[in-house]
Amino acid sequence: MSVVDDAxxxxxxxxxxxxxxxxxxxGGGSPPQRVVWKFGGTxxxxxxxxxxxxxxxxxxxxxxxxxxxxxxAMGGSTDDLVGLAMELSAEPDPRELDALLSVGESIxxxxxxxxxxxxxxxxxxxxxxxxxxxxxxxxGSARLLQIDPRRIVEAxxxxxxxxxxxxxxxxxxxxxxTLGRGxxxxxxxxxxxxxxxxxxxxxxxxxxxxxxxxxxxxxxxxLPSVSHDEMLQLADAGAKVLQTRxxxxxxxxxxxIHVRSSFTFDPGTWVRRGSPMLEEPHVCGVAHIHHDxxxxxxxxxxxxVSAALAQREVAIGSIFRDADAVRFTAPDTPAxxxxxxxxxxxxxxAVRAELGSxxxxxxxxxxxxxxxxxxxxxxxxxxxxxxxxxxxxxRVTCHVLATNVDRAAQALxxxxxxxxxxxxxxxxxxxxxxxxx
Length: 437
Fold this sequence. Notes:
It is a single chain. By secondary structure, the protein is an alpha/beta fold. It folds into two domains: 2-11 and 285-420, VC0802-like; 31-272, Carbamate kinase. The chain is built from 13 helices and 22 strands. It has helices spanning 47-62, 77-88, 94-101, 103-118, 150-157, 183-194, 228-236, 244-253, 302-311, 335-343, 369-381, 405-415, 425-432, and strands at residues 2-4, 9-10, 34-39, 66-71, 123-126, 133-135, 144-147, 161-165, 168-170, 176-178, 199-204, 225-227, 256-261, 269-272, 285-289, 294-298, 318-321, 325-329, 348-352, 355-361, 388-392, 395-401. The strands form five sheets. An eight-stranded mixed sheet has the order 5-8-4-3-11-13-14-12, sandwiched between helices. The protein has a five-stranded mixed sheet with strand order 1-21-22-20-15, with helices on both faces. A five-stranded antiparallel sheet has the order 2-17-18-16-19, covered by helices on one side. A hairpin with a 7-residue loop joins strand 13 and strand 14 (269-272). The radius of gyration is 22 Å and the shape is globular. It starts with a strand and ends in a 5-residue tail after the last helix.
């Protein structure tokens, strides 16, 4: 087993550049009862679910709220569009692919607006460009630069429910861009910041944030709240409930995220500023990635490797240097694309494609020796070999065979008794009580 110490070089989080994110907002603040809600693909997956979303939006409006809803494409439709493009070309032009993929969110918003109108309320659907979402021109993974929400504010003042396409924006050249997988989460958080709303509700197909994926780990429990730091680590380590970018944006702009189910009225999970535990290095959760290869490059400097990956806009998970090699992970990028990018800088590339990863997360000290010892002991007792252990102040990540990932996640969850986890909500509320819009 190899161990990577605290000198692990974390890839830069996908925060927006230094340009202003928040555009001009009428009045310089949040009007009373303004809300920004986001609904994922499963939540708008068919006509009946779109009607249910419309009913929820109308109910909120009739309670006196000004409602902005960010919608994803209907479940599975984005993958279908990618499949069509791949039938025509192994490497579709990024600009044209963005133009194609942005259609899914537009369909969701237009249909939802029709459903709202059928319920007797005004509604207007806006594309990312129409909503003032400005990005750079990195097609497929564009970064948010600025949002001018004046058109949204005008529609709200005209007593309309505003439906904004997630996942998309417009470049300085006037081209449609997309924000990458899960980008609708980032769209919603950024719009909340631009509109002066301090909370953003993310409606999804799960009840909230759990101590582990409940589909994989028996005994996983829903957390009433986690800090931005904890959620950032969980998302980066594989938890799918929120996009890493969205959490980073929320932390940067002081936005509280409320993760809720679209299908129930359960209380959900708050992702808030501050930390829920002030001193104890508690473990808040276990996250996993089923396919997380390790790439080893010899004969090339870390700077050259990083530059080659940056040029191809590869999102690096972790990158670190041994005495004679550079090793990194990039779980969201297909191996052939990575090998092709690295071929341009020379050196030898080895891929451990059979690996996945499981991580123990705590914003208050996962790197402590007792956490590492507990994790390794639990995996050893379950006959699971650790091929690489990487540790940072907030996370311990064990690379294991992909076939062992689910068992490893269960073993770690049990070892840290997360099925008995009781969150100190009183401390959290005292430190980071939400400000209701």
